[in-house]
Amino acid sequence: MARAKTGVRAVGALLAAVLGASLVGCSSTGGKRAADARKAQAEAVGKAAVSTPRWTFAMVTHSGEGDTFWDIVQKGAKEASAKDNINFLYSKSDEAQQQAQLVQAAIDKKVDGLIVTLAKPDAMKDVVKKAVAAGIPVITINSGSAQSKEYGALTHIGQDESVAGEAVGDELNERGKKKAVCVLHEQGNVGHEQRCAGAKKTFDGELQNLYVDGTNMPDVQASIEAKLQTDRAIDAVVTLGAPFADTAVRAKETARSKAEIDTFDLNPKVAAGLKAGTLGFAVDQQPYLQGYEAVDLLWLYRYNADMLGGGRPVLTGPQIVTEAEAAQLEDYTKRGTR
Amino acid sequence: MSSTAPPPVDLGKGSAGDERLLTVSPLRRLLGRPELGSVVGAVAVFVFFSVVAGDFFQASSLSTVLYAASTIGIMAVPVALLMIGGEFDLSAGVLVTSSALVSSMFSYQMTANVWVGVFVSLLVTLAVGVFNGLLLTLTKLPSFIITLGTFLMLTGLNLGFTKLITGRVSTDSISDMQGFASAKKLFASELVIGDVTLKVTILWWFGLVAVATWVLLRTRFGNWIFAVGGNADAARAVGVPVVRTRIGLYLGVAFAAWISGQHLLFSYDVVQSGEGVGNELIYIIAAVIGGCLITGGYGSAIGSAVGAFIFGMTSKGIVYAEWNPDWFKFFLGAMLLLAALLNAWVRKRAEATR
Questions:
Q1: Which secondary structure element, helix H or strand E, spans residue A21, and what is its range?
Q2: What domains can you pick out in chain B, each with its CATH number?
Q3: A24: exposed, middle or buried (C-beta count within 10 Å: 0-12, 13-18, 19+)?
Q4: Pairing state of beta strands A279-284 and B196-199?
């Protein structure tokens, strides 16, 4: 009994200490307070701007757990939903079978619009066609531009991965690089393969693929380090996701390599890195736009039977971002919209 | 042996008699069933989502839930049997993908009738099952370690071979090849009644549950499974073929993985090489929710089906209820703990009333 009491007392003392420390040791910069101030500014907007009935749109993606990129897509979709008076539903699974089932669930719910990614097009074929047959307008985003029309979707919003890869190859040529490494963090992702293949196509130097386990950051760092240590001639590393750029920078420092780190996609760290010059350039496909436009175009279709793109995919990238634009984008990345 | 029955032994009053010959009341027998706790849980989950999610309780939604449950359930049945036999199989998830990949790539590369690929895939998948069982017997290492190794090797083989053979990370489409239509009928057809779509996997699932239940409760092999899982040394001492039983159980998992893999292939006609990782735990979760003991010797096939059904209801119910899917894993974990506690409590009560 006595032991239990001292335990309780110890926990109480610890809590008091933590609370006390947080009250005394205030930070005058950053932190939640700064974020709250930003949020208050943002919340001045966010009321529905239209008088259409409240429709329900569902978005089903192939995202894994806790993915920054898809978080931004969702933000865009949610903000467009707030404006267009839409009840927005989001679900995801990185297993093709599960994703197809989630689309089926949306059909069961008789949603008024469906936004879906076709990272695994063949798995989604039947169920997307089923949605179209059930009279649900479908827009595909992010991946599957080649299949979108065939499955009966109204349009596709996203970036052509091969074209984005080619843009990287061109940019590397302009920067006079000779030997590059393309870091693929998701084995089995078709879009990633296309990016590296596209870069290889236009890059005049030599480009090698390096496969790493993206769910395990220390492993990513170790793999890139090992690669840079074994081959001193490497002068460019291209990562395919924003979180991996920072890891590549660390790996480069540990390996004492001269390579320039470039990346696909943006996040606050990448924007800061571009500004500071630790990163060369970033290729952005503007995920916010993919979410926002998908909801907005569905709304336009339901409201006015309008559709953008003239039967061709609506491209949101590639947009090459360098030091010049970094300062401006830094605030937006902190806000979580770029 | 004379064909006349021996005269009944008169035990008389006062003598203890043989406990195995006691008649047990039906209620007590029900309380002693391993899946009782999970059935209670399933009813609770069903009622909960029917109330919370308006779209959940309608025929088309329930058929989606049943399909989701069947894709897990087909694998949960042999995994439950294996766990009753006291072993694990962590390679079950990627084995499904392997089976689909082998079938698809063999047919495509050899330009053979797809049934040839299906058959070759069955052989390869069963070979992996035998490999697991034999290695377990020969090395005396725990099955957790053995199948962890198999799991990693298969994951690598899936990615490596697919890339080597097709040059990409997914297989080539075989939907225009001979035999595809008939194979699709068997593994991935659907029956449409009004706005309800019943997938053939649901039939496979019910069939497997029925067969497994019969094996467990009505055959010698079923007794062996319980004996090996309860105490392997004691089972060996009384003449149970422990090695054969274990290999048989791994063959069962392999067979179900083959069915699931063919379903994947003929539903989507292209297979992604990186999938299936993590599903092995979901099969184990379904079996545990259904009343299987992690230490072996106790559980049922019906329980695994109920566990899979709970999983299907939860994963899709969250969508129908329009909740944020980020919370799904939390619910799953909480449900696993609750189910395990409920099962333990019911088991204790059942043993106390005996």
A1: helix A2-24
A2: 37-346 (1.10.3470)
A3: exposed
A4: unpaired
What's the pLDDT score for residue A17?
64
Length of chain A: 338
- Where are chain A's structural domains? 56-159+287-306, 161-284
Q: Where are the alpha helices (DSSP H) in B2-91?
A: 26-31, 36-52, 59-84
Q: Which positions ≥6 away from B164 have C-beta within 8 Å?
A: none
Nearest-CA distance A327 → chain B (Å): 33
Please tell me which residue of chain A has the smallest CA distance to B173: A122
B319 contacts in A (CB within 8 Å)?
89, 91, 102, 105-106, 109
For residue A334, the number of C-alpha atoms closer than 13 Å in the C-beta half-sphere is: 17
Contact B272 A123 (CB under 8 A): yes
CB contact under 8 A, B268 and A101: no
With CA atoms as reference, report the closest residue to A161 among A200, A116, A206: A200
CA-CA distances (angstroms) from residue A232 to A70, A259, A290, B178?
Answer: 35, 9, 39, 52
pLDDT of A287 strictly over 70: yes
Distance between B346 CA and the closest CA of chain A, angstroms: 31
User: Does the N-terminal peptide bond of residue A53 adopt cis geometry, omega within 30 degrees of 0?
Assistant: no
Architecture of the structural domain at A161-284: 3-Layer(aba) Sandwich (3.40)
Closest CB to A92: pick one of B270, B279, B325.
B325
B196 neighbors B59 (Cβ within 8 angstroms) = yes
With contact defined as beta carbons under 8 Å apart, do A115 and A295 qualify?
yes
Element (H, E) at A284: strand A279-284
Q: Strand locations in A170-254, DSSP E?
A: 179-184, 206-211, 236-239
Return the pLDDT at B153. 97
Neighbours of A130 (CB within 10 A): 17
pLDDT tens readout for residues A211-257: 888 878 888 988 999 899 889 999 999 999 888 999 999 999 988 99
Class of the A56-159+287-306 domain? alpha beta
Q: Is the pLDDT of residue B115 over 60?
A: yes
Report d(CA B235, CA A336) in Å as an integer.
61
Q: Is the pLDDT of residue A46 over 60?
A: no
Q: State whether B315 and A89 contact (CB < 8 Å).
A: no
3-state DSSP percent of chain A in helix, strand and coil, to 5: 50, 20, 30
CB B327 within 8 A of CB B306: no
d(CA A85, CA A74): 16
Query: Is the pLDDT at A260 greater than 80, yes or no?
Result: yes
> Cα separation of A132 and A138, whole Å?
7
The pLDDT assigned to A8 comes to: 67
CA A201 to mean position of chain CA atoms: 24
The answer to whether the beta carbons of residues B64 and B202 sit under 8 Å apart is: no
Pick the residue of B57, B159, B259, B319 with the most A CBs within 10 A to test the interface with A by mutation.
B319
A190 touches A164 (CB < 8 A): no
According to the 3-state scheme, what is the secondary structure of A43-65? Answer: CCCCCCCCCCCCEEEEEEECCCC
Q: Which two tokens stand for residue B267?
A: 């539903």
Q: How far apart are CA A287 and CA A273, in angstroms?
A: 20
